[in-house]
Write a structure and sequence with these properties.
The protein is mainly β and about 100 residues long. The chain contains two helices and six strands, in the order E-H-E-E-E-H-E-E.
């Protein structure tokens, strides 16, 4: 019913083998690069209601923010995972 969802994001490697697609507006995209390395990840959930606000909880930090479904699906959720083995559980739901 699009009222909630969750995801676990895990950083598996450090260094040159740790490659991911950068988020929109990221400098590497503007330079035409396909992949970038680094600790910043963007998660783009699907199926959210664009006309509603969601509570987005970051489990490891025990913090919750509120964002619209439209903004979240368009801009993504920015995560910083510094080292291999770091992870974040993201839970999003309608209030």
């Amino acid at each position: 019913d699009r009222s909630m969802g969750w995801a676990v994001i895990v950083r598996m490697f450090n260094g040159c083998s740790d490659k991911h697609m950068p988020g929109p507006g990221y400098e590497a995209v503007k330079r035409g690069a396909d992949f970038e390395t680094g600790p910043i990840y963007f998660f783009y959930p699907r199926g959210m209601r664009t006309d509603k606000k969601y509570q987005i909880t970051f489990d490891s930090r025990d913090e919750t923010i509120e964002r619209s479904g439209y903004e979240t699906m368009q801009q993504g959720i920015r995560l910083r995972l510094e080292n291999a083995g770091m992870s974040e559980l993201i839970i999003y739901k309608l209030p």
